[in-house]
Structures are given as structure tokens and as C-alpha cells.
Amino acid sequence: MEKVSREKVAPFRQDIRELLERRLQEAVEVVLEEELSAALGSGWYERNPVRRGHRNGSARRRITTVAGTRELEVPRARILGADGSSREFRSELLSRYARRTAEVDEAILACYLSGANSRRIRKALAPLLGDEHLSKSSVSRVVARLKELFATWSSRELAGEPCGVLFLDGFHLKVRMAGRVVSVPVLAVLGVREGGEKQLLALRLAPSEAAANWGEMIADLQRRGLPAPLLLVVDGHQGLGKALSAWSGVKVQRCTVHKLANLTAACPAHARREMKRDYQRITHAADGLAARKAYDAFLAKWSRLCPAVARSLEESGSELLTFYELPKPMWKSLRSTNSIENLNREFRRRTKTQASFGTEEAAITLLYALVAFGQIEMRKIDGYRHLNALMTSATAQAA
């Protein structure tokens, strides 16, 4: 009984599918015809004084859509210009040399950004689109567009994109270079706009996180017109710390989470709980004055108990307490580099399906695309409503 039912249902489903595909094809052709009528200012066989050209037959084109590959009847025409010249009609809905619709390209990109390679993309989309117009080269051409977008993004002007806060940090990716797979640092800069939105400003593969490489990246941001921020949030890396001198006068906040890790490494295991409790009196104080008192008390106590711990805290100096100078609702987001650490963690999670990247360009382009195409979303910082006022006040004082 069940077997008979399935045998009856299968042809019915196929008929439904073919009917839907045929109706979709007809709908696309109707839309193209209406677009041409609007460009000409008249319909078929209609004569009026505002007519702007004449039809010129049609051409058949094979287009891959979400419903598979279909042959469309694309109308042709000559459009008259104001000076009497004519040009060939070009549809805005279906570009001249397009072989796939935008929805198909978006599906290919979505698969790629999810970690699939060309073979897996073709296998995943073949039941819907077929193999004929989804070759390895066509997938590669779609992905290649990302490189053009990344190049434009990397050189864009930043004068109109002021950020009140910049988070700077680096992480490592495995990339094939000179015939070997090596772990390469990726330097990233994350900005916070006046409305609290986080915006990726720069990504760069570098030989190391040395001061020279960070300095080059910061200099590039300045050359492209990025205004000086109100605050720089960093993890305390020596190379990055030296490079920050390029932004003279800008306040720096050292990450309190990284500093706790440094203190823990310098502290004997049996004293770490007590040390952490004393440290949190500094980083979670009621205000800046209470934090400074807790800071001095920490140094006095741990200079006797464990001088290495005291020296580690003293190394960060007042940069550990900079966030207390800003409105209290912003403290949680600004006392650590968690905002950019979360982004880097998401980068690593999204790229772990690939053992290594074949080229440096492929690695950095994929990271950019994950953010640019909304695969990674970032929420606003805490207390962002205060940031606009702070930026406005700083601009007025500079003027």
C-alpha cells in the first residue's frame, strides 16, 4: 500500500516542480518585458509622442536561478537619447553577461563563508541548480569578487568614519607560505562609532606583532584620514605599546583581563585566590579614587608577599585605570579587549574547518567577508549613548 502511494506521489511532485519552474520562467520574462516597456515609454505596437526607441527582437539566454537552469527569452531594443543617438537596451534586473541570478551568487558565497570548498559547494547546490552552470571555475569566479571588494575596502578613505574607541589586537592563522604551513599573525583594528556600533577598520597579515608592523598599520590608518580616537584599548603587547606613540595625546586602556593573567602567572598557586580578590578591588571599584587606593594597597601588600606580582602590576601603571575617567555605564566594555577578542575567537571558529589556507590573500579575504556579509554580527558596546556626547565635546575642544 505504502509502495503504491509513493509511486503515485513521485510523479505528482515532479509535475508540481515543473509547473512552478515554468511559471517562474514566465514571471521573469514578464518582468523583463515590463522593464523594456518602461524604458521605451510605450508597449507593443503602441505609438505615442513620448516613445524613446524601438524593439529589436529577442535573444535566448540560459540563466541559472534558484529554480535551476532555464532558457529565457530576453527582449532587445534600441533606446534613443536626447541628442538623437541610440544605444542598446540593457536590463538592470539581468545584467548583460550574467549567467546566474544574484540569489545564486549569494548562496555560493554563503556556502563558502561557512567553510565549504568548491567541491562541497557544487555538491550541496547541485540538486537545486544542476552541474552544468555550477562548475569549479564558476564558483571560483564568484569567490574572486571578494578579493576585489577587500582591496577596495582596505584602501578606502576613513575621514568620514570617526571612531571614539579603537580596540587593537592580533591572533594567528595557519597559512601555506613558501611551501610550508606556518602560523601567521593577523593584526586587527576594531572601531566603535558614535552610535556604539562596532566596525572592523583594518585587517593585515604580518610577519610578527613587532612595533614596526603595528606602526605601519597605524600609519596606514592615519594616511587614509582616520581621526584620532578618544581611547585605545590594548592587551599590553610590547610591540603594540611602542607603536601607539603615533597617536600622541590619546588615552590608552590596558586590558584588565590580560593583566590578571600576567599576575596569575607570577603568583604562587596557593596565593592566587587572595591575589585575585585584591586585584578585583582595583578593577571593580566604585570609582577612580577607590580604584587608586586599592591599587596602592595592592602594591604595598604584594611587594612583601611576592615582588614579582607587584612588579607586573606596576608595569601597567595608570593605563590600567583609564576607563574610570569615562562614564560608568561604559566601564564594562572598555576595561578589557573582550570586544575584539570575541571577534578573533569567532574568526578562529569559522576558519577551523580549513586546516590551512593556500595563500595569504585567501586567508585575509575570508576574514573580511565574514564581517562584510553579516556572517559575524557584533553588538553595541555598553553605555554607547554617552559616546556621542564625548566625541562631540572632543571635536569642539579641538576646533
Describe the structure.
- The protein is an alpha/beta fold and 399 residues long.
- It folds into 3 domains: 2-99, no CATH class; 100-155; 165-398, no CATH class.
- It has helices at residues 2-40, 102-113, 118-129, 136-154, 211-223, 238-243, 256-266, 272-283, 288-305, 307-316, 331-334, 338-351, 360-372, 385-398; strands at residues 53-65, 68-80, 86-88, 165-177, 180-192, 198-205, 231-234, 251-254.
- The strands form 2 sheets. Strands 6-5-4-7-8 form a 5-stranded mixed beta sheet, with helices on both faces. A 3-stranded antiparallel beta sheet has the order 1-2-3, covered by helices on one side.
- Strand 2 (68-80) and strand 3 (86-88) form a beta hairpin.
Question: How would you describe this structure in keywords?
Answer:
single chain, 3 domains, five-stranded mixed beta sheet, 8 strands
Summed over residues and divided by their number, the pLDDT gives a mean of 79
Rg is 30 Å
Please provide the ordered H/E string of secondary-structure elements. HEEEHHHEEEHEHEHHHHHHHH
Derived from helix and strand composition plus strand pairing, the structural class reads alpha/beta
Q: What topology, given as strand order, has the largest sheet? A: 6-5-4-7-8
The helical percent reads: 40-55%
- Taking pLDDT < 50 over at least 5 consecutive residues as the criterion, the unreliable ranges are none
Overall form: elongated
By DSSP (H or I, 4+ residues per run), the number of helices equals: 14
Strand content: 15-25%
Number of strands: 8
